[in-house]
Write a structure and sequence with these properties.
Blueprint: E1 3-6, H1 12-16, H2 26-39, H3 41-52, H4 63-72, H5 75-93, E2 100-102, E3 108-116, E4 119-123, H6 132-145, E5 149-154, H7 164-173, E6 177-180, H8 183-192, E7 202-204, H9 209-218, E8 223-224, E9 232-237, H10 243-254, E10 261-266, H11 269-283, H12 289-299, E11 301-304, H13 308-318, E12 322-326, H14 331-334, E13 342-345, H15 352-356, E14 382-390, H16 392-408, H17 412-419
Parallel strand pairs: 1-11, 4-5, 4-7, 5-6, 7-8, 9-10, 9-12, 10-11, 12-13
Antiparallel strand pairs: 2-3, 3-14
Helix pairs in contact: 2-3, 2-8, 2-9, 3-8, 4-7, 5-6, 5-7, 6-7, 8-9, 10-11, 16-17
């Protein structure tokens, strides 16, 4: 089922291999975007009926619907949502940036302003599944950043209603408005605006291949967080690791999607053999066993290295979305991890803690993009603007230097714009 590899014989392409993203959906997505741009709400209703089998009375979710949904959620889970939200708020509050002003040079004032985005759109997968965690992870940083309006879109169930857990999470997270629409058509609505759904400045949140492609195609008209691929985890485990625990952690990602990637890197051949056995045993009891098995067969790997240092080098080359350090003294190795979306330290911190409860964001770079992308954060919901001010005396001190610089670039009008204030122009 899952293959065991010896690092000494493993080729580079095998180390970095991730299954393809499936069929090319760019053409049908382009058609959906075009239809929504041209026909607005009418197109949204047609696609919602076609893809979700739902015909809601109204696209907008009312405040009464939100309150009624929250009342349906069992108190114990509502309490968990509230506590998770507090952890997420506490973590992301530390990310908030401050504007600054510099006055070190006489007569010169420089600065940077941190400005929240006016309106953002949050995509939350729905329909047959419910992801209230996605609501919290995307909306709370936006709220901390000071975003004016947080617009959430999520597909309805066949009854035309939104899952009550999603609505309860939206209420806790401070979502401004909610609409019953999903898929590429929802991305189109956020990017272009319709009669009902307003245009936003940025779209964030995960989705299927159609949603990801739609985000790719509307980028430029609006900003996006990232193009997220299938979920992935890399467990770096030493020989003292519990094989049952490691197998469970691998399966926690494999059950997401047939295209998900679950990889273990270890310095122990016996552990690799034991984990392979545990995966087969635990699969039999999983409700989503078929999906998890397909994921392990296509993208699963158990890689045996000479030592943990080599294992860390492999992890950095793969640049996984989630990286578990199941080793003694994990903080000794943290500084060597250069490429990972989120790092889980120790034997008692499985990846689902980050999915739901710990506080750091679970919207993470995938497909090796942790080499240059970061987790979703408060930074994603602000923009930076800069300003400068010169007095006459300050400009007099520097204008000849600027004029020289401009002329070296062949831009005489640039040079003239500073020269004219002192050489032949009116003061």
């Amino acid at each position: 089922m899952i293959k065991i590899y010896d690092m000494e014989t493993l080729e580079e392409r095998e180390i970095l291999f991730r299954g393809g993203s499936g069929a090319d959906v760019s053409a049908p997505v382009a058609e959906i975007l075009r239809a929504v741009q041209e026909r607005g709400d009418a197109a949204l209703r047609e696609y919602t009926l076609r893809f979700d089998g739902a015909a809601p009375d109204a696209l907008a979710v009312t405040a009464e619907e939100v309150d009624q949904a929250a009342a349906q959620v069992e108190p114990a889970f509502l309490a968990v949502l509230e506590e998770a939200a507090e952890h997420i708020r506490a973590y992301h509050a530390r990310q908030k940036r401050e504007s600054f002003v510099m006055t070190e040079r006489e007569g010169v004032v420089l600065g940077q302003r941190i400005i929240p985005l006016a309106r953002v759109g949050i995509y939350v997968p729905g329909g047959t599944a419910a992801y209230p965690s996605t609501v919290l992870m995307n909306a709370i940083p936006a709220r901390i950043a000071g975003v004016g309006e947080i617009i959430m879109v999520t597909p309805p169930g066949r009854d035309g209603a939104v899952n009550p857990h999603i609505l309860a999470a939206a209420k806790i997270a401070g979502v401004t408005r909610i609409y019953k629409v999903g898929g590429a058509q929802a991305v189109a609505a956020l990017a272009y605006g319709t009669g009902t759904i307003p245009q936003v400045d940025k779209i964030v949140g995960p989705g299927n291949a159609y949603v990801a492609e739609a985000k790719r195609q509307v980028f430029g008209r609006v900003n996006i967080d990232m193009i997220a691929g299938p979920s992935e985890v890399l467990v770096l485990a030493d020989g003292r690791s519990n094989p049952a625990w490691v197998a469970a952690d691998l399966l926690s990602q494999a059950e997401h999607d047939r295209m998900a990637a679950a990889v273990m890197v270890t310095d122990s051949s016996p552990l690799a053999e034991a984990v392979a056995h545990e995966l087969a045993r635990q699969l039999a009891a999983l409700p989503r066993a078929e999906i998890a098995r397909a994921s392990l067969e296509a993208n699963g790997k158990l890689i045996v290295c000479r030592d943990l240092r080599e294992g860390i080098a492999v992890a950095n080359r793969i640049a996984p979305e989630h990286l578990e350090l199941c080793v003694d003294n994990p903080f000794d190795y943290l500084g060597e991890i250069q490429n990972a979306g989120s790092v889980f330290l120790g034997r008692y911190n499985p990846e689902p803690m980050g999915d739901y409860f710990a506080g750091p964001n679970h919207t993470l770079p995938t497909m090796g993009t942790a080499r240059f992308y970061s987790p979703l954060s408060v930074d994603d919901f602000v923009k930076k603007s800069q300003f400068s001010y010169y007095t006459r005396d300050a400009l007099a001190r520097d204008y000849r230097k600027v004029s020289l610089f401009a002329r070296k670039e062949g831009l005489d009008a640039h040079a003239r714009a500073v020269d004219i204030r002192f050489e032949g122009g009116e003061a």
